[in-house]
Design brief:
Elements: H1 2-15, H2 20-33, H3 36-52
Length: 65
Amino acid sequence: MARAMFDYTKTVLKKVSFDVNLFTREMLKALNRLLPHEIEELKIWIQSLTVMQPELQPCLIHLKS
């Protein structure tokens, strides 16, 4: 069940990656809902996504905390 939430989160983030504000909002929701080990995996995935889409880099500030 928890893995399904992680996969769903990635799907949502991919779909909203066209808008930095929407992406950031959905990312913050995910950080509140996912398990700690899933959050670490999500951080790695988001960092790799921002390499391909540099306009999303402002959201990385939320991953530091």
